Amino acid sequence: MSALLQRLNAPFVRDMAGPGFAFLAVLIAFSLASPQFLSGATFGSVAFQLPELGLLTLAMLMPIITGGFNLAVTFTANLSGLTVAWILRANGGVDASPMVFAIAVVAAIGVGALAGFIMGLVIAFTRAHPILVSLSMMIFLRGLGEFLTRGGDVSGFPDFVHPIGHGSILGIPVPMLVFILCVIAWHVVLTRSRLGFSTYMIGSNIEATRYSGINTRRVVILVYTLSGVMCAIAGIIMMARFNSVRVGHGESYLLITVLACFLGGVHPDGGFGKALPVFVALIDLQMLSSGLNILGANQHLATAVWGLLLITVMICRWLVLHVRFNLAPDRR
Amino acid sequence: MDQPAGDKPLLALRNINITFGGVRALRDVSFEVRAGEVHCLAGENGSGKSTLIKIITGVYRPADGAEIEFDGKRYSHMSPVFAHARGIKVIWQDLALFSEMSVAENIAFSEVVGRGVRLVDYARIRSIALDALARLGVSLDVDLPLKQFAIAQRQIVAIARALVGEARVVFMDEPTASLTQSETDNLLAIVRNLAASGVAVVFVSHRLAEVLEISSRLTVLRDGRLVGVYPTAGMTQSRITELMTGRTFDAKVRAASRDDRRVVVEVDKLTRPGQFSDVSFTLREGETLGITGLLGAGRTELAMTLFGMLKPASGTVRLDGRPVHFSSNRAAIDAGIAYLSEDRLSLGLIQAQSIADNLVIASLRKILSGGLLSPGRKRDLVDRWVTDLGVKIGRPEDAISTLSGGNQQRVAIAKWLATEPRLLILDAPTVGVDVGARAGIFDIVAQLADSGLAIILISDEVPEVYFNADRILHMAQGRIVGSYDPRTYSLHDIEAAVYG
């Protein structure tokens, strides 16, 4: 028994416990409720829909670990998508060459990185609250995008863009592959790089981190820049999925990304959180939504159930802590 | 208060046992206090003082078999509301006051809220507050918000609040920790008045001189057990330290001449206007330079300038003969300078993060392998320093906040030693560290000096620098006003110069 408890306390198991439990609960509940749930179709729908939300969540994750926020994720993604769309359109539209597309992607990533870099710069030097800084950036990008597109869609891409949003390699949807690669990249950055290490330390105590010889401004700027890069990747995938770009695409994901982070065990005050549990948490949310869809429920109901799931997880987490430490004495 | 001030205890506890997560925090402890007495509760951090106070005030419930006798009645445990209503009050070290509210509201808070009054009666609040302050013989403008008052006056407000309603036993947790000498004297006078009015005062303090001055009896706890109850008359500070730690300490001057060693640091006329000016000294390998002086003398600013976090306006710093200008503390660390912050809780260590991460944070480059942090190298580095410095830890992944002050400080020192410095600046390294653990810290400092490290030891406690440094500089108002060799000056002379 004590050996089991010991293993339950191991960091990896502890981080995975919440989202893992929710995963099993959702899987079992829907398997019982509908025989169609455990099927390739469900897997396909999860795997195609997850990456947009997932990539945006990854973009939100690192700023949250530093104790900050990036409210501009969806509009950064839109602007990056628009960058690709415009470059394609200006160079032949549906006849544009793959080379043009490659350049467009690099430019889009540059735009995302620039948006993040500016936010990071402002946050690092003025110490203004990240919520305010990223909110300002979000409003700026939205206004800019709507001004440049007159609120309409930009479409008309070459055929080879389509598989990026809808194709599969070895049975795995391309967006899902991109997402998995990004999860792995984030996991490595967070657990094995100096930047990742500093990200956690800054999230807990930025001054003590600075006193330890870490250039905290540089880290904050890099974190927001990387967040912007991840937004750009999300924007490109969204562009390929919808076959068009419009400012406001994916806007409803914004707060869901925050909740997905918390469902994945990220500490709301910063300092703690891992990429893999967040990945599992995202799968939970998408399975829940697909499952309800199979049962014929309204899509808005799915959103409501997401909220309920998150509240349930918070309560469960509190119960687990409370039961394990048996009325732990004061927590000061 | 017409309590018998005789030998009969007002509050007595017997057979107190309590266990947290398998660890027995208190074992068969007994404790008693009489009305009108100032009783000191002494013990190192983790000895069980706070736990005992929390049992008396009903926060924790002791194991079965406990007896609590208060005012002639017996109880098996207390509850916070019950204890408060019967006049058992605690003034915690953090005071738990409301800085935005007025002095009057702070003092009368429990009385007003506790009685469920719906509309706030400001006249009554004022009169309650004025009464309580009058009992202490203090006058304050009760209408001003608390944040306008200094810490010493807030302390008085906290005491006044404890007196509202009935106050029979008042516990004071480290009440003088952040006070100056004259403020401390004032506070002790108030405590004496309080006791004279029949209140039993239980005084918890690390400052043994005060303990001897104020209290008539002393209960000593060590590792959750009762060591004994002693009259204060005839006690000495060193005897109390022995009782608290179970060890004897004999302080010896360890100063020696290091003139034959190589010069590591030369500071020449270093100046930062408003903070320090014309500071010059040299420091050799294996030498420990003590810098003492009152708070605000510019010691910490000097240290942070050497560490590259502040820029000097004029003057030079030479390291191994070459002038250095640091653009950041990273540059200073790379050049071989390490700075242990005076504020371990918020600047020295990252309390929420793990022991291992805190230990490696300043030397991440040493645990890289192929550009990535290597868990194996990290573990090796942590194991090595934990063993070398004798840090008592559970698991390296545990949060550093789970360690005692002394062990945290060892990790903080290890963090800097891992950067392989030439110069180690220790700023108030024993703040919040128990008496017993302090000796352990200075043993480490002595070993480091013997191994050739140049050390600057900053402390406002003159005995610390006297017994552990080769030379002592006295800083006042940003200038070096005295330089002493512990072999030729007595401790008393230097203390007179610094505190006088």
Task: Report what the structure shows.
The complex is a heterodimer of chains A (332) and B (500). By secondary structure, chain A is mainly alpha-helical. Helix content of chain A is 75%, strand content 2%. Chain A has a two-stranded antiparallel ribbon. In chain A, strands 2-3 form a two-stranded antiparallel ribbon. Chain A is globular, with a radius of gyration of 21 Å. The two termini of chain A are 30 Å apart. Chain B has two domains: 11-245, Rossmann fold (3-Layer(aba) Sandwich); 263-499, Rossmann fold, CATH 3.40.50.300. Chain B has 500 residues and is of the alpha/beta class. Chain B is 34% helix and 24% strand. Chain B has 17 helices and 22 strands. The model of chain B is unreliable at 1-5 (pLDDT under 50). Chain B starts with 10 loop residues before the first strand and ends with a helix. Chain B has helices at residues 49-56, 80-85, 103-114, 122-136, 151-163, 181-196, 208-214, 237-245, 299-306, 329-335, 344-348, 355-360, 375-388, 405-417, 435-450, 462-468, 491-499, and strands at residues 11-20, 23-33, 38-42, 67-70, 73-75, 88-91, 169-173, 200-204, 217-222, 225-231, 263-272, 276-284, 288-292, 314-319, 322-323, 337-340, 368-369, 372-373, 423-427, 454-458, 471-476, 479-484. In chain B, the strands form five sheets. Chain B has a six-stranded mixed β-sheet, with helices on both faces. Chain B has a six-stranded mixed β-sheet with strand order 16-19-20-13-21-22, sandwiched between helices. Chain B has a four-stranded antiparallel β-sheet with strand order 2-1-4-5, with helices on one face. Chains A and B meet through helix 8, helix 9 and helix 10 of A and helix 10, helix 11 and strand 18 of B. Chain B: Pfam families: ABC_tran (PF00005).
